[in-house]
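We emphasize that the prediction below concerns an isolated chain of 663 residues; any contacts that depend on oligomerization or on bound cofactors are therefore not represented. The input was used exactly as deposited, without trimming of termini.
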Amino acid sequence: MDEQPNNSRPSIPTWVWILGVFAIILALQLFLSGRFNGPEQSSLQEFFGIVATGDVDTVVVSGDKLEAQKDGETVAVSYKSPDDSLKETLDYYGISNEALAEQNVTLVVRDTSTWNSLFSLALALGPVLLLIWIFSRGFRQMQGGGGNSIFGFGRSKAKNLNDGDRPTVTFDDVAGVEEAKMELQEVVQFLREPEKFVQVGARIPKGVLMVGPPGTGKTLLARAIAGEAGVPFFHISGSEFVEMFVGVGASRVRDLFDKAKAAAPSIVFVDEIDAVGRQRGAGLGGGNDEREQTLNQILVEMDGFDNETNVIVMAATNRADVLDPALLRPGRFDRKVFVDLPDLNGREAILKVHARGKPIGKDVDLVDYARLTAGFSGADLENLLNEAAIFAARRDKKTINTPEFQDAFDRIAIGPEKKSRVMSEEDKETVAYHEAGHAAVSYHLAYTDPVQKITIVPRGRAGGYVLPLPEDRMVDSREHFEDRICMALAGRAAEEVFLGRITSGASSDLQQATRIAKVMVMKLGMSDKLGLPIYGGDEVNPFLGRMYGLGSRDYSEEAAREIDEEVKRILEDNYQRALTIIRNNSDKIEQLVEALREQETLDREVFEALMQDAPPIDAPNGSGEEAVEAEAGNGRGQAIIEEETIAETGTDTAVVEEVTPSD
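Result of the prediction step, given as a token string:
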């Protein structure tokens, strides 16, 4: 049977109906009161003066309205007082029936009491009927469904990705997180072949929580599952549950799970679940009742009395530490999948995935950039390739070559090149000695990463920087940290030795060195004087976590004084080490500074040749748009900025030493 064509017109919004009704009421009032087009209103004295002249043949009285007409046309209009009768008004102005008859003026009195009664009744009942109509229309919309209706606050805003809306992303498009992919591919297998697991007594996990730093691909993995699972996939953000109205969040949770159960087997994915799943009772004054009610409803739906549902709940967060323990227990989120920053092989795989469809030049080796980008997330690597493509398009190139990758990386890690900044000779000299000090000291330290590039070309807020070639390390020793501190302080030491003065350019170096020294003393037990205790507790966002109100100062004044003394000692000892290395290699540093003045950017080969007294290698000019080539396997001039905090394992990323000259 042929389907009937859909000739229904779009429904008119409710506010249009309301405005229309009020416009009609206003028009009726104006019409009945006779205040549309016609002669201007006259005073009663003027009106009866016109009547007395005999220029009219009819006086029409309609309620309080008086009209003087001549040959059927109104020539004057006035209104009497509602408190006075017609006879009292005529007598007051000396108009009698006999005088009107003598002038052949006919007095016509119309009975308007019925019209007035009806109009008054319409004005009284109209708004009430209008409100009844609006509410009945709203309830019909609510019964018809739709979260956007006037009463649809309690409807879930989750989007059901059906076959038409299903993402085209698959697990082949996800790289660098192989362990997480295996865990989640098994979830898809649970839904496709449940009997395979049931026959051996396995229970399908009710929940899967993906945890990891921002940009590591948690949402991308969820999209891959939606693209491959072949079952209804409901997607919603944690912030979409809670509104300004009390009870809406819990209602939306119930509605979401009702839809998921009706479509079972199905998957519910809650992105950024920490927006609604934070620990109950945290913060000042207790907690947020509406958010806690929403969380309670989620807990009930995931593992309540009705637990025989074939619905898998997936969620993603980068703040697992703030989630409520009841949400994390087995039976709710049975599996926790950690999506961490990719390692060397993972970064190479991610670069290859995002390089699909891009004309990468033959001179580009993605393995080199995988080595350079230690600490980069998947999103960072995708951005690197995108920025390189933008540079290629800006230069009207058909392929993306090494110069584009070089500039894209420098832009992401350091900032755009400051072509308009003109450095004075004094500033250029200061920056050159500062960066040469960093590089020379790093060369003579056993536990620092090899120097990849040195430049005095301003980028972002940096007047220059030293680029190490980082390594993937799981743990760092005390020697690693102390060498890193020594390298950070080497720029200031070089200024003192060669220039006889110190500048503000070392401010970020001092902050970095102090932070590392504090972590060694307070978090890692690397102080012989203070020993093994950990000082400071959990200082990472206490307001958002579970330690709010407890304070981060959990040690005595005496311990605080000893911590300050140990931090100062570590900094002083390593500063003296830097001074010694610089004084012992002053001639090499002078050569390095001279090369920086001439070429502005030195790559690894040129730098190491200068430090080893080998014949210098002609290096391309690294300023502007030129590439800085490096030997195979050492990368091409990437800048990794050190993480603000050091992980609990004691690891961190490589350091970019930079100096910002004073104005």
